Amino acid sequence: MEKKILVVGLGLIGGSLALALRGFEDFEIVGTDLSPAVQKEAAAKGAGDRVVPDPEPELPGADVVVLCQDPAGITGFLAEHRDRFKPGALVTDVCGVKTAVMAAAECLRPDVDFIGCHPMAGKEVSGIGNAEAGLFRNTHFIVTPGPRATGEHLALLRRMADWCRFGDVIETTPERHDQMIAYTSQLMHIIALSVCDNDELFACKGFEGGSFRDCTRVAALDPAMWVQLFSLNAPALTGVVRALEDRLRQYREAMEAGDREGLRAMLASASDRKKRIDLERARGDDVHPSF
Amino acid sequence: MEKKILVVGLGLIGGSLALALRGFEDFEIVGTDLSPAVQKEAAAKGAGDRVVPDPEPELPGADVVVLCQDPAGITGFLAEHRDRFKPGALVTDVCGVKTAVMAAAECLRPDVDFIGCHPMAGKEVSGIGNAEAGLFRNTHFIVTPGPRATGEHLALLRRMADWCRFGDVIETTPERHDQMIAYTSQLMHIIALSVCDNDELFACKGFEGGSFRDCTRVAALDPAMWVQLFSLNAPALTGVVRALEDRLRQYREAMEAGDREGLRAMLASASDRKKRIDLERARGDDVHPSF
């Protein structure tokens, strides 16, 4: 093997990437994690060709570095190791917010290429114990290239995504990513948490169906990580939360007023929107090329 | 076959029941539907041993009648056919609200036993074309007996539920059912609709993950039916919608204030609640016998 990919942080996403990337072209996959227990489990699972305790000796020889810690861990790592990356290296990350991470990456030397990534994959459980090579199958791989991103590195990321069996690669700006993710992902987590805050949660056993299990599934999150993700994207996220509050109030007011016709029109419109987006996706159309 | 179960309305639920019930003890399963096209498709699928266009000649010989129309269809059928049910018959339904249906069933003669039912099963698509015998596997079968319910009929419903492979049978009052269902099911539909009302819906392609697909799945509903379900349960439903609005506002205000510690405490509490309820269910405990 002539080249090296260093995966930093072997939690659910990093561990799964280190598993999935093995065998990719002529790259050696090296995993690293601060925790000795995680190192041991990652090595036993084969998360990487090698698992090492210290990233420092690996950095000068790493052609690709994938940062898979929480947001503070990623920005801290960039600042601490800024002078150790190999000239010409590709540095990337898997963080769920991109503007803040791209800003932190501006500390890197001009000969290091940082391209933000966000694999739209996950589970409601975390840690190396839940990592698996198939985690990324048919999910979106979002990339947010910085101003110095090279075509060569973008092509390399696409091949890596293909090898890990992502469904597609979406290229966009950090700002657009954060706006969209506030709506499609972070809001879903705020909803799940809010539903679980209801007093009836522990009384509703026997009355829950698929919709309740699906909607609340992601509430079992890691508070320390998600408080960072929410806080780093607060302007976009508070906007979509407020829009949801407004819309819920409109449904409630229609019911309180006994306005069946108004309510029926709202249901018809929203269900039609949902059916149209399903239909468009089922047909494979791309009628809204918005990025 | 000596006895007869008449399934009225062969949509997704009625059609699936007519499929699943075939072979149950010594009952003949007869399906009926107003639509000739539905009758034809139901007969072709085997939704019932026989499919008939008119329920009227079947009613005097039916030991069990399962009403599977929308709420207005069920209450209309009860009023129209009140004098045609067989003495001693069990009449039941599959409607997602129970107080209103139980009230409508008070028009029945005293020698007819009405026990409300709610199979907590469904799909985001409707109609006989999507009906399948396995729809009910491992879902809850909720029963709300009226004041005249006999133990014999409750036992019969339990055997029917077992034959259709429901996971369990939950017996409760109509009022408690409607309060719980407002939270676990109807609120999930209001959330899904409200999320789909966002302007970004058609722009978010490529940014959606499992949480977005899961949360919005049920938005593709039948407006004519759901406006009835929401309206018939408006007092309970508006209460849980308001509670959700309040909780969302609290998350938003914590983010707007930059109150990371407050936000972290909210996330820790809600995620812990979710993990606890998962744990209880995984262990099979029943620590909240609330009905």
pLDDT averaged residue by residue of chain A: 94
Instruction: Determine the oligomeric state from the structure.
Output: homodimer
Low-pLDDT windows of residues of chain A = 284-291
The DSSP helix count of chain A reads 10
What structural class do helix, strand and pairing data of chain A support? alpha/beta
Write the element-wise H/E pattern of chain A from the N-terminal end onward. EHEHEEHEHEEHEHHHHH
Q: Give the biggest sheet of chain A.
A: 8 strands, mixed
Radius of gyration of chain A (Å): 21 Å
Percent of residues in helices of chain A: 40-55%
What does this structure look like?
2 copies of one chain form a homodimer. Chain A is an alpha/beta fold and 291 residues long. Chain A has helices at 12-20, 36-45, 71-81, 99-104, 151-163, 174-196, 210-216, 223-232, 234-256, 260-283, and strands at residues 3-8, 27-32, 50-52, 64-67, 90-93, 113-119, 140-145, 168-171. Chain A has an 8-stranded mixed β-sheet with strand order 3-2-1-4-5-6-7-8, covered by helices on one side. In chain A, helix 6 crosses helix 9 (234-256). The interface between A and B is large, with 94 and 94 residues.
Quick gist of this model?
Chain A is α/β, with parallel strands linked by helices and 291 residues long. Helix content of chain A is 47%, strand content 14%. In chain A, helix 5 links the parallel strand 7 and strand 8.
Helix and strand topology:
The structure is a homodimer of 291-residue chains.
Chain A: E1 3-8, H1 12-20, E2 27-32, H2 36-45, E3 50-52, E4 64-67, H3 71-81, E5 90-93, H4 99-104, E6 113-119, E7 140-145, H5 151-163, E8 168-171, H6 174-196, H7 210-216, H8 223-232, H9 234-256, H10 260-283
Helix pairs in contact in A: 6-9
